[in-house]
Amino acid sequence: MQPTILDRLAETIETRKHADADSSYVAKLLHSGHDKILKKIAEESAETLMASKDGDAQHVVRETADLWFHCLILLAYHGLTPADVLQELERREGVSGIVEKASRDAGEKG
Ligand SMILES: N=c1c2ncn([C@@H]3O[C@H](COP(=O)(O)OP(=O)(O)OP(=O)(O)O)[C@@H](O)[C@H]3O)c2ncn1[C@@H]1O[C@H](COP(=O)(O)O)[C@@H](O)[C@H]1O
User: Fold this and answer.
1) Nearest C-alpha to atom 10 of ligand 1 is from which residue?
2) Rounded to an integer, what distance in angstroms lies between the CA atom of residue 75 and that of residue 82?
3) Does ligand 1 come within 6 angstroms of the Cβ of 68?
4) Ligand 1 test: best mutation among 13, 15, 25, most atoms within 8 Å of CB?
5) 3 Cβ closer than 6 Å to some ligand 1 atom
6) How far apart are CA 40 and CA 86, in angstroms?
7) What pLDDT shows up at residue 101?
8) Which residues are within 8 A (CB) of 77 and not within 5 positions of it... i.e. 6 or more apart?
9) Which reaction is the catalytic activity of this chain (predicted)?
10) Is 25 a pocket residue for ligand 1 (Cβ < 6 Å)?
11) What is the pLDDT of residue 71?
């Protein structure tokens, strides 16, 4: 199967772990450390919420792209890849959130 943009971007991010921070945004962010990555994700999340409130669909697309991009950097920080997240979504496929929550609640009570 052809690598997707998520796979290719994750590979690029991986190569940036040892790149020069002066010539790479990803390297700069990775070298800035965990807290800075988390701060960017909080910022991009807020910007996505604001875009949605604005009601401009293309703005939502751009802000979601920023958010996903920064989430990929966070995954790389933890040694994870998009495949790990996609595998988790596949594991959940077909299991209703309502049913899953009910079984979780029953487990907590039992
Ligand atoms: N997809 C992206 C991408 N999306 C957003 N951004 C950058 O993420 C930043 C978003 O932060 P903001 O909007 O808050 O802008 P900012 O004020 O410059 O950021 P801060 O100074 O607050 O950190 C901007 O600098 C954007 O240019 C991206 N930078 C890089 N990529 C991809 O990552 C690859 C590697 O990039 P480099 O590591 O820079 O070579 C590129 O080839 C692209 O494919």
Assistant:
1) 66
2) 8
3) no
4) 25
5) no
6) 22
7) 87
8) 30, 34, 37
9) 1-(5-phospho-beta-D-ribosyl)-ATP + H2O = 1-(5-phospho-beta-D-ribosyl)-5'-AMP + diphosphate + H(+)
10) yes
11) 98
The answer, yes or no, to whether ipTM is higher than 0.90 is: yes
Residue ranges per domain, the chain?
5-82
Expressed in angstroms and rounded, the spacing between residue 28 Cα and the centre of ligand 1 is 10
Cβ atoms 27, 16 nearer than 8 A: yes
| Tokens standing for residue 51 | 């875009």
pLDDT digit string, tens, across residues 69-83: 999 999 999 999 999
Tokens of 14: 């991986």
**What's the rounded Cα separation, in Å, for the pair 74 and 88?**
17
CB-based contact 49:40 (threshold 8 Å): no
Token pair 């609640």 in the structure block, residue = 105
- pLDDT per residue as tens digits for the range 10-63: 999 999 999 999 999 999 999 999 999 999 999 999 999 999 999 999 999 999
Q: How much distance in Å is there from the Cα of 26 to the middle of ligand 1?
A: 7
Question: For 5-82, which CATH superfamily applies?
Answer: MazG-like (1.10.287.1080)
